[in-house]
Every structure is written in structure tokens, then in C-alpha cells.
Design a protein that fits this description.
This protein has one helix and no strands.
């Protein structure tokens, strides 16, 4: 049988264990949130880069469409001079 003094000694240990579990759970949720935010930022950056590539490509096609007979010295693409 457990004496009352033994019960009071184990109670703080149980509370500490419970509070550690709660803190660990919070850290896990925080880490998951940070990971979710990091993945979202990475996706947004990839979409921005893709969009910029499309804009540049369209602009270069536009330049070559304007005048395919005059050569630009800066990039090898054709533009109107």
C-alpha cells in the first residue's frame, strides 16, 4: 500500500511529466506550423520565379517579332533600332 507521503512525492513528478508532455505537444505543433509556413513560402517563390521567366520569355519573343532583321549588340536578339 502507498503511504500519503509517497503519494504527495509522486504527484509533482506526475504534474511535471504532464506539463512536459503538454510543452512537447506545443513544440510539435509549432514545428508543424513553421514547416507549413516554410513550404508555403517556398511554393510562392517558385511561382514568382516561374512567372518572371514567362514575362521575360514573352518580352524577348515580342522583341524578335518587332524586327527580325536588325540585330541588337547587347544580347543577340533582334530589335528595332
Amino acid at each position: 500500500m502507498v503511504s500519503p507521503s509517497e503519494m504527495t512525492e509522486t504527484a509533482p513528478a506526475i504534474m511535471t511529466t504532464e506539463s512536459e508532455r503538454i510543452e512537447s505537444s506545443r513544440e510539435l505543433v509549432d514545428n508543424e506550423e513553421e514547416e507549413k509556413i516554410r513550404r508555403q513560402k517556398k511554393l510562392e517563390e517558385a511561382l514568382e520565379a516561374k512567372s518572371l521567366r514567362r514575362i521575360i520569355s514573352a518580352y524577348l519573343k515580342y522583341l524578335t517579332f518587332l524586327s527580325p532583321f536588325k540585330h541588337s549588340s547587347f544580347s543577340g536578339f533582334y530589335i528595332i533600332s
